[in-house]
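Worked Example 4.2. Consider the chain below.
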Amino acid sequence: MKGRLPLEEDILTRQLRPSKEEREFIAGIARRLVAAIKESGKAEGMVVGSIARNTWVRGDRDLDVFLLFPPDISREALESEGLALARTIARKFTKTFCEKYAEHPYINATIDSIDVDLVPCYNVESAASIQSAVDRTPFHTRYITEKINGLTDDVLLLKQFAKAGGIYGSDQMTEGFSGYLCELLILYYGGFGLLLDAAADWRPSTLIDISQHGSKEFSEPLIVIDPVDPRRNVAAAVSLDRMAEFVEIARGYREAPSEKFFILPKEHPCSRDDLCEMLAMRGTALYAVTFTTPPFIEEIVVPQLKKSTQAICELLSRNGFAVHHAHYRMGKERSLLLFELLIDELPPIRRHEGPPLWNRANADKFREKYQNLSGPFIENGRYVTEVSREFIRAADLLSSPALLDVGIGRHVRAELGKDWSVLEGADCWQEEFAAFIAGFFSRCSPLVRIGREG
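Applying the procedure from the previous section yields the following structure tokens:
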């Protein structure tokens, strides 16, 4: 697979390369925005991201324009003056815009149907001098623009391939491949086919160091040293599962190239009746904890949903309720934590082990404490007794204040502290989460899914 396949040329022509009209349309908006920023006299404008690098897939109309401020202003001034200027620029072009927050505030606007981010940053001399995380982005744009010649189509193929595999995006829900990572992988391997040939044999701790920095050790499964900042692993967001899934579809495509590998996954929402049938067939118990979504961006909320789900799984397990599968989803108004349990109701008593008899001081304390209950008795050299179980039903545990005593995320805790709901069985079905719930019960690897949908 060293040359481009006719199949790939066809996909590029039909699906991936933006048309001349689309390029000119977006370029016109970008020029007007950059000019408006320059006219303000407060900052320089720069188009960054895939549109600037000419590596955007047809229809992906996200325009990132950075407002580059002098590096000697304070962080507070960058945030206040940068946001004020971004808001002023947005007003010149549209009435549809809002403030968002990553490391610091920025403006997201819709201008002539194009999604535009206006992001203040420092105009630093090198990536080694960055004062905020976004300061790196202009250097990424310059690096890729200079190096990508002749490989743009390969980047388009890789992006669509990753999207179709469900592993494109470095956001917290996806934990996959960013656009910049895709570009660097194509540069390093010299093309889409060559990348897949190599990726088929990737293993955890695979290291890619384009500029031969070799300066810092990283612990992530896939390590791609940022050529403009060796302190950073561009693939830090890629989880072990997403890496393995990329390896799987790379192998699958090598063995049997097909257009199916470039078709975006279909959503198959389930109905309430579908959920009833699935639960009856599986014989498991389903519980959902729902609450108001914290008023923060996905990058902040989703890690806390993940942490909270794990903490509640541990709480359930400690109390004897075996968790088979759990996942989470952030919705616009409500968020949902979903738990499939193998057991959701238990006997009123449980076994409680004490210390061995030769640990005399503690053994004596245990015997005195529990001698009015059943036991204690001696088994395998240690005291054992039976105690009353605090929670017999999983629903009671999930509805109790004990939920707030585990390691849940800070913003999630704040919303749970106001109120939360516990849903059971088919009542877990919510229209907003119908596709998520369907996916919860139909897990399969990307290659298996591609085979089924084909």
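The chain is about 40% helix and 20% strand. Residues 291 and 419 are 7 Å apart (CA to CA). Compare this with Example 4.1 before moving on.
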